[in-house]
Amino acid sequence: MKKIVPCLLCKSSRFRLIHQREKWMYVMCRDCGFVSLDPHPSAAELINSYDSYLPEDPVEIRKWACMMRPIVVKSARLIESESSEGPGRLLDIGSGYGFFLEEMKSRGWEVEGVELSDAGRKYTQGRINVPVHLQPLESLSLPQGRFDVVTLFYVIEHLPDPLSTIREVCRILRPGGTVLVRWPHSTPIVRLLGPLSKNLDLYHTPYHLYDFSNETISRILTSASFGRIKTVIGGHTLPDAGLNRWASIITGVLAETFFRLSGGRILIPGVSKTTVAQKPA
Fold it and tell me: Which helix (H) or strand (E) holds 210?
C-alpha cells in the first residue's frame, strides 16, 4: 500500500485528485485546500533540471526580459512603498538572469542573488557584477538579520519544503524586514477547464510541486512568523507574441481593474499574484 504524505500545511491525510499527467498527480487537501504534487521528483532530479532551466540564447533572454519587465517595475515600486527607510540590502532567491537585481541596484539597493542555473548566474554577473550564490538558500548559512528585503519570483511553487524556506527567509531578514513572493494561481483555471487542462499543462508538470491560493500563501507566511500580510495583483507578464500575450494582457488588466475598483477586496482566481509581508519588529 502506498504511504500517504500528510498535507504540508495542516497535516491532514484527506485529498482529492485535481489533475493528472502521466504518473504525476496534483491533489487538493480536503481540509485546508492546499494543492500539492504526488509523487515529488527527487532532489537530484530537481537540481539537474534547473541547471538547464534557463536558455542561453541572447534572443530568448531578451524575450524573457520583456516578458518580466511589468512585474519587475511594479514589484520594485511595491517594495519601496513598504520600505520607509529607503534603499537597503536585498536578496532575490531564484534571481534568474538578474533583471530584478539590476532594477533594484539602479535604485540604490545593495543586492545579492541565489540562482541554481549556470546560465542565469553567468549572465547576471557579466551584466551587473553582483554576488549570486549557487547553493540553495538553506545551504548558505547566511547571517541572521542580514537583509532588509528578500524576494521570490515564481519560486515558492518549486520548493520541496516551502515552509522551511520561508522560515529561513524570516531568519535572515532584519526585524521589520519585508518578504515579497510572486506566485502563480493555476488551480482555478485547471478546475474550470476540466479535461482540456491536460493539453495546457498549467502546472508545468512536474516542476510545480505546489499551487497556492490567497489563503494558503497567507497560512505559509503566518506559520513562518510573518505579519502584515498583503496580497495584490502586482502586474502581469508580457509573453513574446500570439494568444499567450493577449490572454496575459486581458486577464491582467481585468484583474488589476477589479482589484482597484473593489478597494483591494477582489482578487480574481487563476491570475498570478504578489504577496508582501513583514517580519515582526
Answer: strand 210-211
